[in-house]
Amino acid sequence: MYYDLHIHSGLSPCADDDMSPQNIVQMAKIKGLQMISVCDHNSLKQQSVIAEVAKEHGLDYVYGIEIQTKEEVHVLAYFKDDHDLPLMQQWITHNQMKVVNRANFFGHQYLFDQHDQIVEEEKLALIFSLNVSLEECLHVIHNHHGKAVLAHIYGRKNGIVYQLGFIPEHLSIDGVEVSHEDDIQRFIDEYPCLSELPCFINSDAHHLSDIHEASFAINPKTLTRFWSN
Asked: Model confidence over 11-28: pLDDT tens digits?
């Protein structure tokens, strides 16, 4: 199944304003993808609409979010269904910095309806870290029946190796994300004790053109194991 499980919508301040539900889904279809996830910065508020549009167009959808911890490490949280999303969003809102977004500096934070009409602009800045540690973040994701994947672990700011210099072996994680296929072998060589974890190759797209082509596929057995572990 061809996938891209790290795409940003216009709710993320650093994403293009045209990263709307219909545009994202249509681009994913053009590129031959079968499964997608939108993981906005520190917010789940666009998930229900994106999921609805994706399913209308025959794409499998994984509910997701990209959380920034106190350590400025990015963690992807994935959820199989939407039952736990409201409580997860409450936790996020409780722990986010109460700073009004400066759209002219950080970017707009648009919420769209299923027809790509802007219905709201998120007022609180989503660019800042939540007031939670990495370990607490992982614990809360699992408590809400989610799966925790370390985002873009190599070569990028806010990846755990960039921020901390290494991946602590005791972390309760369910997978890692890399940007390039070559990084999978590097991860296996450097962290053999974690080598059984799935490695996802995602785009982290902030622009429509950056959404992946149908280049990377996930085995259904791997996906089943990911959700069941």
From this structure: 999 999 999 999 999 999
Share the mean pLDDT of the chain: 97
Query: How many Cβ atoms from other residues are within 10 Å of residue 127's Cβ?
Result: 18
Please check whether residue 68 is in contact with residue 97, taking contact to mean a CB–CB distance below 8 angstroms: no
Per-residue pLDDT, averaged over 137-144, amounts to: 98
Domain housing 62: 3-228
Taking the model in full, what pTM does it have?
Answer: 0.97
Tokens of 210: 């950056």
Distance CA 77, CA 106 (A): 23
Per-state percent for the chain, helix, strand, coil, to nearest 5: 30, 20, 45
Q: In whole angstroms, what is the distance from residue 200 CA to residue 182 CA?
A: 12
Write out pLDDT tens, residues 204-218.
Answer: 999 999 999 999 999
Cα–Cα dist 112/50, whole Å: 9
Query: Residue 153 — left, alpha, or beta (φ > 0 → left; ψ -120 to 50 → alpha)?
Result: alpha
Q: In this structure, what CATH number is given to the domain that contains residue 217?
A: 3.20.20.140
Q: Is the dihedral of CA 128, 132, 133, 137 positive or negative?
A: negative
Domain count, the chain: 1
C-alpha angle 148-101-90 in degrees, rounded to nearest 5:
40
Residue 160 backbone phi and psi in degrees, to 5: -65, -35
